[in-house]
Design goal:
ProC C-terminal domain-like fold; 14% strand; 2 domains; amino-acid biosynthesis; proline biosynthesis; 266 residues; Rossmann fold; single chain; 12 helices; eight-stranded mixed sheet; elongated; alpha/beta
Length: 266
């Protein structure tokens, strides 16, 4: 029977566990969740998941081991589980800035490592997850892809782009949320109550994203449909651009990518 172990059952780990069970990829009893405090996993234990505070014991017999921990915890956790790992197990890392090569220096050259970078929308099954590896076989990557397809969309990329993926997709959630917040504040300034302005901004942002996804179109082509000569939309867009909207967004993504690359070493 297939078994998966998720080490570090925080928001991402628990969301992944629920997603794979909901998709019938694994049975709850074959999903092993670890955390330092077992009382934090009481609800998951009641739901039928297997829980443990012993990382080394939990990885035994697992087809896939997911390290859903902070980069700063990486070395300690990998040293804990190293002796318990088998050569055929796939190690999936969701740790930002920790390369496959970094992990192999601790786990050994034989380790099969696949990196995955989901975002917090994993909580509602709408993550944008990027996955990569340096040495894993195609079927091994596909098995990891199947796991993360249960909680959103997946793109397979080159490993050197994983830090960039962190900035665009993981940090990117916060950037788009801030833009929605700004839109709602603008709504208040032009006369709406705060709760109405926020609801209107959220739905408008959701509609814009769904429009691109469903129509498979480019943002500029959809922008063209709502901008008329001497109109109010182009006036607003140009005012934002004069004040550096796109430039600030791009610079923020670039700086986040630079920061993400140094998390493991810090």
């Amino acid at each position: 029977m297939a078994k998966i172990t998720i080490i570090g059952s925080g928001n991402i780990g628990l969301s992944l566990a629920k997603g794979i069970v909901h998709a019938n990829l694994y049975q709850p009893e074959n999903v092993f969740l670890t955390r330092r405090s077992l009382s934090s996993l009481a609800q998951e234990a009641k739901a039928g998941f297997s829980v443990s505070d012993d990382n080394a014991e939990a990885v035994k017999g697992a087809d896939v081991v997911v390290l859903a921990i902070l980069p700063q915890q990486a070395r300690q956790v990998m040293e804990e589980i190293r002796s318990a790992l088998a050569p055929n197990q796939i190690i999936v890392s969701v740790m930002s800035g920790v390369t496959c090569a970094d992990m192999r220096t601790v786990l050994g050259e034989q380790a099969i490592i696949v990196r995955a970078m989901p975002n917090t929308a994993i909580a509602i099954g709408q993550s944008m997850t990027c996955i990569s590896s340096d040495q894993a076989k195609e079927e091994q990557i596909k098995s990891v892809e199947a796991v993360f397809n249960t909680v959103g969309s997946v793109v397979v990329i080159q490993e050197e782009l994983m830090t960039a993926a962190t900035a665009l997709c993981a940090c990117g959630i916060a950037f788009f949320l801030r833009s929605i917040r700004a839109a709602s504040q603008g709504g208040v300034e032009i006369g709406f109550h705060a709760h109405d302005a926020l609801k209107m901004a959220i739905q408008t942002a959701k509609g814009a994203a769904d429009l691109l996804l469903q129509m498979q179109s480019h943002p500029e082509s959809e922008i063209d449909k709502v901008t008329s000569p001497k109109g109010c939309t182009i006036a607003g867009l140009n005012e934002m651009e004069h004040n550096g909207f796109s430039s600030a967004f791009i610079k923020g993504i670039k700086l986040s990518a630079l920061k993400a690359g140094g998390l493991y070493n810090e």
